[in-house]
Amino acid sequence: MTTMVTTTPSMWRNYSTWANRNRKWLFASPAMIFVGLLIAVPLGWTLYLSVTDSEGSVRAKSNLVGLSNYFEVLTDTDRFWPAVMRTFVFTGGSLAIELILGMCIALLLWRPFRGEKWVRVAILLPLVATPVAVGMMWRLIFDPNIGFANQVLSWIGIPAQPWLSGQYTALPTLMFVDIWQWTPMVVLMLLAGLTSLSDEPDEAARIDGANSWQRFWFVTLPLMRATVIVTIVLRGIDALKTFDLLYATKGKGGGSFHEVETLNIYAFGLSFDYNDYGIASTVLILFFLLIIAIMWVLTYRRKANRS
Amino acid sequence: MKRHSAIRVAAIAAATFIAAGSLTACSTAAGAGDGDGASKTLRVTLANHVWTDTIKDKLPEFEAATGLTVELSQYGEDQLSDQYNVKLNAGTDEIDVMMYRPLQEGKLFAKNGYLADLSDDVESNADWDWSDFQPGPVGSTTYDDNVVGVPIITEQEVLYYRKDLLANAGLDVPTTMVELEAAAQAIKEQNPGVAGFVARTGKSAAVTQFSSFLYSFGGDFIDDNGDSGIASPEAKEAYAFYGKLIREYGPENVSTDMSWPEAMAIFTQGQAGFYTEADSLYKNATDPETSKVSDTVGFAPMPAGPGGSVAYNVPSWALGINAESNNSAEAWKFIEWATSQDLTLEVQQDGVPGARQSVWEDPAGTSTYPADLAAAIATSTKNGVGHDRPLVIKVPEAREIVGDPIVIAITGGDSDAAADDADDAFQGLLDDE
What are the entry keywords (chain B) (predicted)? Predict the structure, then answer.
């Protein structure tokens, strides 16, 4: 009894001291463990599957096959590399146009004007729509026979276009839809950057006689560099991951010629259509590494710019 | 101080909400079983289909008779497949009865052990009469001599056509492929803006409807030796013919990704003279609410090619029991009820062809069908082939391979060369299995 009375406070004091010293880790640890498990477990499982010949069911017996899946995927010029190319074309093309268009619109909205609120609401409307609903809507608009797009073309005497159904037109059409939907987000981010800029450098340039273009190119844009890079990182990763729009409009396989099959659609098809979990996991791991590499390059560049 | 109180109240409310949610979840889970693993709640997963609509209306009768509560989940075909892939892969016991496609995923599911063995159940009730089910569909729901499903819906491919366009052109209903091509050409030439022929064009989607052309030209996906048959002269002829029909007599802006909803929309909007499709979709064409041609649509058996008029006659859907289910006895009660003779007759009268021979032999079973459709189905049932896609484990992959020459033919490419390439790939897939 006596021992307990003397020992317990001492243990508690020791713990209390330790906890005080490490409180920042202690408080953060539940969240860190939770996030770690959420990322580490699925990633570890995918990594494991990528070195097995798992197919049919993940519960079925599978064998370790080393890196042969990686060799198979990396030498696949029929589906994998074209999917990589389409992923980059879709992401890069959409992102570039969204940035240019977004910057133009953000500059227009930068200074207050009458009806500014209404214009902002109208611009933001596509952003709030669900990508699947957007896909279904544009699919109807681009229908080759009854779609509104071909109807408009016929009014001005241009022959009907295959839009989403064409082997070479489907990807550019979907890039257009992506630009339509996500440019508002780029506008929002760039506008936030523009409104946080100080007016003084711009005024100084104006006094020095710089015209509008020179003030934008030599003053505003360099000051916006950090915001632009953040926008590229966030929207770029988002565009890389695009799945719902492509799936809602072209379905599994990305069309009869795999014309819009990006890495996401390819991996989904391998998993849910072919039940080829080993190869699907390999594609996903390679995709993951690709995203990490891009993020590293952009982050490195941002740091280099700062220094 | 007030702010702190508000935060405290909010925190307590949130904690109570979370705790209540957890406890409710626990109590539901505990209540799900009654000690021996069985439950009064039966979880049934079905596809969006006319069959499901009829069964849904009848569910209260089943619940009243058995005291069970049916928890129904309903999905589109692709979503249903994805659900099964995720849940059955994870070994879920949250699905008891599952509606599945025997030809598409039956082999894979049975091989993976997802489907319970129903061999004893189907023989347990003589009144229910397992021997009444057509042998073809039964063969498709049997794996390694074990019954793993009960077929509920059958499909045969038939020719949909516009009676008015044929009459205006002074043509008879085509009975051969040659006549079909000539009639499609005549209709297209005589009716600006109207296609002579329409059918599915998507690489995978078209395979099922193309199969009847393949059989009618004398070919098959797999030959008698178990090897790929898609580069045979008959198959090449079928690919070229199907592609030519759509390319030359199809809609003006034909795409290569049409499945049945798109092709059916073109036909029901009055923009095509002929359309080959499954009979189970006939209500889409004859319902005045969905079809502009409801009063002029006619039905005929598949036109005969060099190999005769050979359409597919397949079980498109079946009911199975999840092997992990804790309610297999109750699940069987549901299947027994849903596939009974009475209910099969009712469902068939609602326009869904069933798999029971007695219902087909009963005049009441076909009384609600257009007479020409019933006759076309009778022909297809008699001459039909029991599959409409390659019978392999990796069906989706196989469909993409054998469907490739279809889209090449539609777009005017060299379908013979495409068939040779596809043949190599398909043989590789067969060798792997």
Answer: Signal
Cα B230 to chain centroid distance, Å, stands at 23
Domain with CATH 3.40.190.10 in chain B: 6-154+315-381, 156-312+387-432
B201 and A257 within 8 Å at the Cβ level: the answer is no
Distances (CA, A) of B362 to A167, B154, B357: 49, 17, 9
- Selecting from B112, B252, B256 the residue whose C-beta is nearest the C-beta of A256 gives B256
Tens of pLDDT along A76-121? 999 999 999 999 999 999 999 999 999 999 998 888 778 878 887 8
Interval A7-25: pLDDT, tens: 567 888 888 888 888 888 8
A132 has a pLDDT exceeding 80: yes
Asked if residue B405 lies in contact with residue B414, where contact means CB atoms within 8 angstroms, the answer is no
Asked whether the beta carbons of residue A165 and residue B203 sit closer than 8 angstroms, the reply is no
Average pLDDT, chain A: 89
Cβ contacts of A278 on chain B, cutoff 8 Å: none
DSSP 8-state code for residue B161: E
DSSP A115-151: THHHHHHHHHHHHHS-HHHHHHHHHHHT-TTT-HHHH
CA dihedral A129, A131, A136, A137 (to 10 degrees): 40
Segment A30-35 shows an average pLDDT of 90
A257 contacts in chain B (CB < 8 Å): 203, 256, 407
pLDDT of residue B29: 38
Cβ pair A162:B255 closer than 8 A: yes
Amino acid at B102: P
- Interchain proximity B81–A275, CB inside 8 Å: no
Domain with residues B6-154+315-381, CATH architecture? 3-Layer(aba) Sandwich (3.40)
Task: ipTM value, please give it.
Answer: 0.80
A211 near B CB under 8 A: no
Mean pLDDT of chain B, nearest integer:
89
Distance in Å, alpha carbon of B39 to nearest chain A alpha carbon: 26
- Cα distances (angstroms) measured from residue B159 to each of A230, B171, B397: 58, 15, 28
Q: Which of B403, B396, B392, B404 is nearest to B431 (CA)?
A: B392
Q: Which of B354, B427, B325, B343 is closest to B42 using CA atoms?
A: B325
What's the token pair of residue A261? Answer: 């099959």
Rg, Å, chain A Cα set: 26
- Put simply, the answer to whether B396 touches A274 (Cβ < 8 Å) is yes
Q: CATH second-level architecture of B156-312+387-432?
A: 3-Layer(aba) Sandwich (3.40)
Contact yes or no for A272 and B397 at CB 8 A: no
Whether the pLDDT of residue A303 is over 80: the answer is no
- B253/A contact by beta carbon, under 8 A: yes
b/e per residue B246-277 (b: at least 16 CB within 10 A): beebbbebbbbbbbbebbbbbbbebbbbbbbb
Q: Per the CB < 8 Å rule, is B114 touching A257?
A: no
Which single residue is written with the structure tokens 């897939």?
B429
Question: Is some CB atom of chain B closer than 8 A to the CB atom of A249?
Answer: no
Which of A60, A160, A251 is the closest to B112 by Cβ?
A60
The predicted structure's pLDDT at residue B30: 37
* Nearest chain B alpha carbon to A140: B262
